[in-house]
Amino acid sequence: MQQKRNIQIIEWEDLDKRKFYSFGVFMTMAIRATVYPATLIRTRLQVQKGKSLYTGTYDALCKILRAEGLRGLYRGFMVTTFTLISGQAYITTYELVRKYVSNYSKDNTVKSLVAGGSASLVAQSITVPIDVISQQLMMQGQGEHLTRFKVKPKAGAKHSVFFGQTRDIIGQIFAADGIRGFYRGYVASLLTYIPNSAVWWPFYHFYAEQLSKMAPSNCPHLVLQAMAGPLAAATASTVTNPMDVIRARVQVEGRTSVIETFNQLIREEGFWGMTKGLSARIISSAPTAIVMVVGYETLKKLSLRPELVDSRHW
């Protein structure tokens, strides 16, 4: 009986770091551009009261395109390009922590869980101010009545559409809340993304291994990993969505208490309120996971040290 092979994992010490970071910037930007419209829709669905604006993901997509055009789906996108920094910080932290934990445990689940949570902690410390600004920009247009800050219309050059609105929102946030305003929802973000990342990586490796056992022996590893990514993303999104709803409301509505926001959500919309935006989140996370997994695993393959290239089966 033929023995099924395990999915090979390329570790930090196997990589040519110069190639890894060069290719990584392009990968991160491609992922952001691909999934941004679904992220914007998810944010508006989570912040609206009941179904006051949209009845669901498809309804939101149609209404935004009709009222605001394609540009409406990319409100605040230019601000998120700064998350390239947090993206590089995330993958570096993940790989380094995996390497460190391997000194104490060879269990891949333990390494993935600890490294995923640690990477998210570092990345969110950089990302939260960017998220606060971009979410305020996402809510402009049809959703502007749901947010504290509104872009003041100005006549001017085309570049002011992007940079002028961003400066306007930054100025309003600082005037109202100071520096602290840019870290509104930081605790809620940590409570959302640390568990999400800590759940995603172990399930990703778990699903990849299970698929490997069922697939033909000549099936490329990358295909199995591309299938495992969305499964892990759907699992992690479902587990952490309640906290993501609270995070979005804290950041957009300017709330200060996670517990108070949770209690009000339950009073007004019941436990179903905790599922708001879940379908949009899964829809955005599935292609994100495919692009991320294929991109990330290919990135690692391209970044392998030359002497190791022939030793890896893909």
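The above is record 1. Record 2 follows with the same two-line structure.
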Amino acid sequence: CTPGRQSLLFKLYCLAVMTLVAATYTIALRYTRTTDNELYFSTTAVCITEVIKLLLSVGLLAKETGSLGRFKASLSENVLGSPKELVKLSVPSLVYAVQNNMAFLALSNLDAAVYQVTYQLKIPCTALCTVLMLNRTLSKLQWISVFMLCGGVTLVQWKPAQATKVVVEQNPLLGFGAIAIAVLCSGFAGVYFEKVLKSSDTSLWVRNIQMYLSGIIVTLVGTYLSDGADIKEKGFFYGYTYYVWFVIFLASVGGLYTSVVVKYTDNIMKGFSAAAAIVLSTIASVLLFGLQITLTFALGALLVCVSIYLYGLPRQDTTSVQQGETTPKERLIGV
């Protein structure tokens, strides 16, 4: 194989593995939520996931350096001796924390259907951040495929509204404001991390260690702010089973593969991969849980598949940080 073909095959391999891991994770998560009598604290699971990702990254860095001396030198130089880099990599963790809180606030103040539709705007927002922050261009066909993917994911995840007698006081203006912030945070954080990864020759595993260290602190704070009283009463590992640990392990591996995908492809391709995982996990749920396929799901899955095909048609490489000046109009619509 030529170097270009080998690079393409590696990118496709990363995307395929991420898609399969994400689909398996979704299925396993659904199983734990439908079979366990005592539900675990999801906030503690997120915290443990960050710890496992940190440990896996340390192990992979040790393997990459090849010797204990070089491993210690790498940690000393890039982690312990680089507080500025730690601060730089804490930005995605903090922004993701804001995103999660804004998404919860939006869900509390918007109808579920409105939330499902508007939150998928994070897909074109990611594409826009990619264009503006990384100086890339997307063709008209790629923009069409991005918005088609947005519509497809919305239909795949669509659940008809159910009538309820419970009256919940909502503030739509607050909800739309929160969803706008969540969408912007999602696009910015992902593209910011991609820019940091691709703007230097620093090891991917070093970057992961730097980010997960701050991620552990952020998730620990969030855990005790959300469930601190219940955790003190029932324990940090309340409700954990072998299946829960399996879900946490899948989430950790998926997180590592996500960083690999961002490093060697881009955040837009990550979005397409995540959409494909949603479709695959839903199809698998038909066999495992008796889930019924609806017309909206079938149409959404078709849109997802077509959008992936259309996005792959242009031959322009959008996976590296481009140098040089282009006008905003040229970057938004490359022909």
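The chain has a mean pLDDT of 80.
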